[in-house]
Amino acid sequence: MKLYGSYKPHLSVGELSLLPGAEWTPGLPGWSxxxxxxxxxxxxxxxxxxxxxxxTVLLRSPREQGSVRASQLGGLSLYYFMVDPERLxxxxxxDEQRLFETAQFxxxxxxxxxxxxDPVASRMQELCASRNRSGTLFxxxxxxxxxxxxRSELEQETPHPEGTFGAKERLWELLRxxxxxxxxxxxxxxxxxxxxxTPRHLSRIFREVVGVSFRDKHAExxxxxxxxxxxxxxxxxxxxxxxxxYQSLSLFNLMFARRFGMTxxxxxxxxxxxxxxxxxGQRNAICMLS
Length: 290
Fold this sequence. Notes:
This protein is an alpha+beta fold.
């Protein structure tokens, strides 16, 4: 299960300035999009180096290594934001989450450098130049911007693992069409009915398809939803528990403390106080939009 020890601002635009010759290594836990707003520099990678002109956009996975270095002739200004697909459980399906998990290991998808004339790069320039960089509409535009480079992968039909349309194929189809948030409110017995197989068989094929048991995945989705609500809303803990699929506040507190070693209230206070660290030779200002 994913760790949330470094819960970073999600769908929030950051502004960063590098002095001449300074470097910045993105320490963002999710996928990130980085725009060179002004100046020039280089993307330094273990396998290659690439020049970055004004207007260039980097799309990188959390596994991708590398750093941005400003030119010795002048400084470099950047805009950036982070997207964690696992925190978009109300918008994307488990199958789509798996797509982004596997994309991290595909060289052609895990790092892309988009030139200034690319439509995605042009759109990011427009969004970051906007005076109104807040609110739901703006965050939805950031999500759309992030998804656009993956359009061909998202539009591909998921191949069924077998020739006949059996229980496993019905499970694949359900995971492909159902937003992850809806699975929070589906019980194992309901899933048995939807896939029309025995509980024992469903347990086996769910682990084969998803990689973990139904119980573990359910717990992961619930706690991910709870963390998002605690970090981005003022909802009472009891309301967070209900929204995350827990019918009992005491059970929610118990499961949360068992997973994170603290109460939901303490977790909220800790992560709302967290401030981003600054890199060597840079001036950093974060514009929070959540």
